[in-house]
Structures are given as C-alpha cells and as structure tokens.
Amino acid sequence: MKFYHLIDGGLAPQRADTSALGTLPTDGFRYCEPVRAASAFGWYVFLPFDLKVRWDGFEFCWSLDDGDSWFDLGRGVQYPHAAARFDAAAPDGMQGLSPPFLKRTNAADMLQIWTGCFVQSAAGVSSLVRGPCNLPRPVGARVVEGIIETDWWFGPLFANVQFTRPDTAVTFRADWPFLQVQPVAQTLLRDRSKVDVASGFEGFGPAQWDRYRATLDGSSPARVGGYAARVRKRAAP
Fold first, then answer.
1. CB neighbours of 74 closer than 8 A, spacing ≥ 6?
2. What's residue 228's pLDDT?
3. What is the pTM (predicted TM-score) of this model?
4. 40 with 17: CB under 8 angstroms?
5. Cα torsion 113, 36, 127, 119: sign
6. What is the rounded CA–CA span in Å between residue 94 and residue 90?
7. Of 74, 91, 183, 219, which is most buried with the most CB atoms under 10 A?
C-alpha cells in the first residue's frame, strides 16, 4: 500500500497497533493472539482535524470548532482552502475536480467523509475500508465497510458513514483512527466455490482427530495463552 496524504494537519496513515492503542484489556493483549493479530492488521487512517457532525433525521450540519459554530452541509463541502490548493497544483484540465470533504449520499442518514488521502495498492490487492478494529467507535455513527480495487481505481479514500442518532453531535477526533484499511487478495474475493461442511462426528475422521491432538499438544483446550505462545514461537527468527 502507498498512501498520498494531501490535506495539511492531522496524523499520516500508520500501521495498526496490536494493543488497539492500549485499549485492549491486559489479559487480552497478553494471551489472545487472534485479537492482537486482527487489531494490527492493516493501517490506521486519520482525519486532518477534529470534526463534529449533527444529523436531525434528514439534514446535516458540521463544526470544526468543537460545536461553537455550526454550518449547514447542503449537498457537500470542501476542506478549507483545499479547492484552491488543488487547482494550483493540478495539471491543465484537472481544475475544479478537488474531492469534497463531506458529501451527502442518496440515503438520508448517510454521509461520505473524505480522509484527505488517496491510496494505491499492489497489483491483485484490494483495500478493505472499515472502522478501526477493536477500537471504540463514535457514539451515533458507524462506518459502512467496503472493498475497493485500489490497484487500478485511484480516487479519494473516503468512507460512507451512517448516522444512527438524530439530534446528537457525533465527534470524530483527529488523534483517533477514523478508518482501518486492510489488504485483501482479489483471488480470495473472486472465489465462488461452495463451502465444504462435514456434519456430525461421522465426518470428523482420524485425520481431524490427529490434527486436534497435535493442536492441543498435551494441554487442555481451556489453557490460557497456549495459542499465543505457539504462534509467537513460530514467528520468532
């Protein structure tokens, strides 16, 4: 992945964190390797500055000064000074094509929010754009997950955000991840093979019992941290 961070302010995209920025319980961080791995998979993407959005059930308004001043959204709005900077930097024929910061969608409760970034992935790799994994989310809004073929589609990295509480000011902090972008191999996305399910113990044959026995390695299934210890040992140089 390569990120292009175009809007001044805020934090540049960064690798996601195994501790979910210190929010995981201590036992979860120490012993639950699946949670650690999921938390750290991909990259955090931030907004350039603090943003508040309020939705009354139909119309949106927004604020950049912690709610001291509110502005009606209308159909959309640009980042401050972004359109002029875009036009000054753009080659001939690209003027006027600056992506909007906030934009209404056809759904009454949905808003597109641009991160100020573009992203490009390696050939054959798509980007799963989602809310940050295992992190607390803003009350009153949720990021709608989507997968983009960013190996050929090169556009603004935005999220569709659904608002769920009318007349509630939703805060998006610049120092807190807004999105998590995770790479996904397109071969997996295009696989339409049927799921293979073996029902009952009749389909749980000797090979499966042997694999289960090897996985337990003489310990109880309830042993705390057993999986984490073995994964970290396998990963050690």
1. 104
2. 76
3. 0.89
4. yes
5. positive
6. 6
7. 183
Residue-range domain boundaries for the chain: 2-189, 201-235
Rounded distance between C-alpha atoms, residue 127 and residue 182, angstroms: 6
The CATH label, of 3.90.78.10, 2.70.40.10, 3.40.30.10, 3.20.20.70, for the domain at 2-189 is: 2.70.40.10
CA gap 13, 11 in Å, rounded? 6
Q: How confident is the model at residue 222, as a pLDDT?
A: 60
Q: CA-CA distance, 65 to 67, in Å (whole number)?
A: 6
Q: Are 129 and 157 in contact (CB under 8 A)?
A: yes
Structure tokens at 198: 């073996």
Task: Say which DSSP state 212 is in.
Answer: H
Residue 55 tokens read as: 């939705």
Question: Could you read off the pLDDT of 195-222 as tens digits, one per residue?
Answer: 899 999 999 999 999 988 888 876 766 6
> With the C-alpha atoms ordered 177, 178, 184, 188, is the resulting torsion angle positive or negative?
positive
For residues 97 and 87, what is the distance between their CA atoms, to the nearest angstrom? 8
The Cα–Cα gap between 149 and 145 comes to: 14
Distance CA 92, CA 89 (A): 10
CB-count burial class (<10 Å; 0-12, 13-18, 19+) for 198: exposed
Tokens at residue 73, please?
């959204």
How far from the centroid of its chain's Cα atoms is residue 197's Cα?
Answer: 31
φ/ψ of residue 44, rounded to 5: -80, 140
Number of other CB atoms surrounding residue 76 within 10 Å: 15
